Amino acid sequence: MKSSARTSQTARVITLAVAGAVGGFLFGFDSSVVNGAVDALQGQFELSQALTGFAVASALIGCAIGAYAAGRLADRWGRIPTMLVGAALFLLSAFGTGLAFSVWDLIIWRIVGGLGIGIASVIAPAYIAEISPRKMRGRLGSLQQLAITIGIFAALLSDSIFANAADGAANVLWLGLEAWRWMFLASAVPAIVYGVIALLLPESPRYLMQNGKEEKARAIMATIVPADELERQTRDIQDSIAADKLAKTSGSLRGRAFGLKPIVWIGIALSMFQQFVGINVIFYYSTTLWKSVGFDESNSFTISVVTSVTNIAVTLVAIALVDRVGRRPILLFGSAGMAVSLAVMAIAFSQAVTVDGEPSLTGAWGPIALIAANLFVISFGASWGPVVWVLLGEIFPNAIRARALGLAASAQWIANFLITVSFPPLAELSLVLTYGMYAVFAALSFIFVFRLVPETNGMSLEQAETLFVSKKKKGTAPSTPVEEGVGV
């Protein structure tokens, strides 16, 4: 009987985590839906390379603002109401971008959608971390990245379907609207689904306890925590909240390290390194990139879809390993793999020749660049993609978790914006320089993890927070929690 109840509770936790991760699907869909529309937008609105980059990246401005505000909204209103706000903003953006009459109109609606995606990018990992048992938190936290990769795949697949149905993204498809407009209008579907799911989810027990609703929190925890662990987990949360209230600055992000607490800077650095390796260049510009080096539009769409499927597959591998191997070894492996594959891409593009004013890879260099790009996606998808979200969900103290996550996610979106808006002019200048720069950031991410990121596998949220704070002070990063004297 007890085994049956535990199985039922485990199934419920997984269901809630999967539902909460739908915010990641919106993140991924919005990130890549523009991929298939880039050339059509550039032609229809007669955009320069710089304005093209800004139009693509404009959503990320909203994402940064939404992510920064999400923590405060979540602490004031709760996790579920904040999810609903994000869904509503994204729905408005889907119709606005699909029916845009000028590039500036399009940019405004993409910023509105970005606000919703920024909110979802913060709430999803926070919610999953707060409802997950410690032994499953790594795998469940990785669902955020899995949802992002599935969203990327869905966006690229729908882009391909619309473009092929109209025989080109710039051609009219249905109701007098071009295929690229239907690519954006399709975003309304996941926005509605996310809003409906949010209405069905229970509120985070941690948020409820923080706001004096202990009875309601216990009722929810009883459905996801085994009976013999309920009191201990409830007490852990209560002790954490009490300790935070006693510390005068516990609810503040401010600290002595350039105005912020060191743990907040760790989160910001993890977020920025995740973007500075250039991963979203693959998912925002891959169709245009492969066309520029010799592949036709149809094959470019196919390559982009295959790459997104690869991303999903390796994310599943990361989910299977994150609670077995640990966070730190996976990040180190990923950094090394990204550095090597990006360096190979830079070398490949150094061999490009100019044909009709465009770079073209001749001989074996085209396939080499294609293989290197997919190895880069594999290295990222199996490591930095999912594991950063796991760490961001577990390293911050309870009193500042939502706000610190918001700041880290905001930094991630700003880094994403900088990479996205700079790629078209940088690529026009030199793809060798561009991918070489990304390779350098990948190498630096290895050094950062090796020096400053400790292992948190198997710890409660409270233990993980304590380890990061103590290890930041000592300046070392043990490979296992046992070295810190913390049980697993």
Which labels suit this protein?
mainly alpha, Growth Hormone, Chain: A, two-stranded antiparallel sheet, 21 helices, 4 strands, 76% helix
| CA-CA gap between termini | 27 Å
Helical residue percent band: over 70%
Q: Taking all residues together, what is the mean pLDDT?
A: 77
CATH superfamily: MFS general substrate transporter like domains
Supply the helix-strand structural class. mainly alpha
Spatial strand sequence of the major β-sheet: 1-2
Which blocks of ≥5 consecutive residues have pLDDT under 50? 475-488
Shape: globular
What name does CATH use for the topology? Growth Hormone, Chain: A
Strand content: under 5%
Structural write-up:
- The chain has 488 residues and is mainly alpha-helical.
- It has one domain (2-201, 247-453): MFS general substrate transporter like domains (Growth Hormone, Chain: A, Up-down Bundle).
- Helix content is 76%, strand content 2%.
- The chain is built from 21 helices and four strands.
- Helix 6 crosses helix 18, helix 13 (262-276) runs antiparallel to helix 18 (384-394) and helix 16 (327-349) runs antiparallel to helix 20 (431-452).
- It is globular, with a radius of gyration of 22 Å.
Could you give a quick summary of the protein structure above?
The chain is an all-alpha fold. It has helices at 2-20, 22-33, 38-44, 49-77, 79-98, 103-131, 137-165, 179-185, 188-200, 205-210, 214-221, 227-246, 262-276, 279-292, 297-321, 327-349, 365-381, 384-394, 401-429, 431-452, 461-474, and strands at 172-174, 177-178, 353-355, 358-360.
